[in-house]
Amino acid sequence: MQSIKKKGKVVIVGGGNAAHVFVARCGHLGIACDWLATFTGEARRLKAAIGNDGGIAAINTLTGQTWFGRPERISDNPAEILPGAALIIMTMPIFAQEPTLKIIAPYIEEGACLGAIPGGAAFDALIYETLGMSKAKQCDIFGTRTLPWACRITEYGKAVSILGTKENDQIVVNSSTRSFVINQVQRIVGHDLKYMPADNFLFLSFTMPWHPCFMYGMFSDWDGITPFKEQPAFYTSVSQTTANLISDASDEIIQLRNEIMKLFPAINLSEVTHAKDWMKSAYAASIKGTDLDDLHSMIAKNPAYRDLLFPMKAAQGGYVPDYTSRYLTEDIPCVFLVYKGLAEMVGFQIPIIEMIIEWSQRVMGKEYIVNHRLLGRDLKESRAPQRFGFEDFVAFAKIMGYI
Ligand code: NAI
Q: Is residue 151 lining ligand 1, measured as CB closer than 6 Å?
């Protein structure tokens, strides 16, 4: 792998909540950045919103601090933006990475530093598939486990609220210049969050079993007819049953991790943590004073989680669940099916995660699992290893460089 270019611009790719924050961060730090938004019509709308003298203000709702940034260029044309870029940060839902990479991959130069925040499961496999193995091996590739902030656009192309900042996160870098890459990313994100390196890209498959548990907990007993009077709070109204479900799903993931490490001692997944430990670590200061053995109160009382509501659609007489929300459309194919795929490969059972997939695919109108196997027609949307053509764990791990 070549080392990262030391000069050149930062390019932010994506146009959602997180991209708004990154543009503001770059401006705040005096780092020149271009904004590449390839999703239909987005660059045009962003240009119109920013105008001749506007920019993005990221306002921290807890501290009142504001970062402000104006990108040098906004474009949907990777041929115009990508040549010479020093650092390309993709920040978007995991399911949006593939269509975006298909558009931008031809313009990514050998030696580029390219990563995703968050990275998501099999980000490395996707890079190999879209860039081609030979070009990909010449690039520095990185991915983080999650996004540093809980954030929501308040005015498109103008303002975004930061509702909370995680205190730490893991980053994986596929490069001989790992610490340089980490320092670059750390500088842009800021030091309120500390990046800790994880060993290999398989780690990114072990994302927290999170949003679908909340969706299942709130809606699995709903009669499908009677509207809710109001949109319940996503986190702060969490029930004890849902907290237990998250904990049980997390237990399964830790057991799956242990099984993989037992079968393949060369694969280090020691950074994979249980939801309880992750909460303690990522939100240590925010949840100080709550019972750190009680996942339910760590979620319900976390100030970073205030103000976030269940995704619902207005209906006659109230609200009904919105099953097209990324809480399902992203987390089921890109998190839960990945667990199912890995479990299938190593012959391990994860019944709780499977139960949540079964319910989710029903309400989403998708087919991923058939007769307990990943054989459904919509599997191609997922990030399970099987979607990349891998059935055998050893072959998968060798090609991806995990063993
Ligand atoms: P978002 O929902 O705001 O992203 C929307 C953007 O994604 C669109 O504006 C567009 O640029 C792109 N996009 C969507 N569909 C696309 C498609 N089919 N093709 C190409 N581009 C498409 O996402 P957000 O909030 O910025 O989050 C980014 C990632 O961070 C997600 O994976 C999310 O789960 C994760 N995350 C977000 C948090 C938050 O508070 N916003 C908190 C923790 C994690």
A: yes
Question: CA angle 174-205-272, nearest 5°?
Answer: 90
Cβ atoms 158, 181 nearer than 8 A: no
Residue 118 structure tokens: 């968050």
Concerning whether 274 is annotated as a catalytic residue, the answer is: no
Read off the pLDDT of residues 289-341 as tens digits, 9 standing for 90 and up.
899 989 999 999 999 888 899 999 999 999 999 999 999 999 999 999 999 99
Smallest CA separation from ligand 1 atom 28, residue: 92
DSSP string, 86-133: SEEEE-S-HHHHHHHHHHHGGGPPTT-EEEESS--TTHHHHHHHHH-H
Instruction: Fold for 206-400, please state it.
Output: N-(1-d-carboxylethyl)-l-norvaline Dehydrogenase; domain 2 (1.10.1040)
The rounded distance, in Å, linking the Cα atoms of 369 and 265 is: 30
Is the CB of 205 within 6 Å of ligand 1? no
Q: 0.85 cut: is pTM over it?
A: yes
Does domain 10-198 fall under CATH 3.40.50.720? My reply is: yes
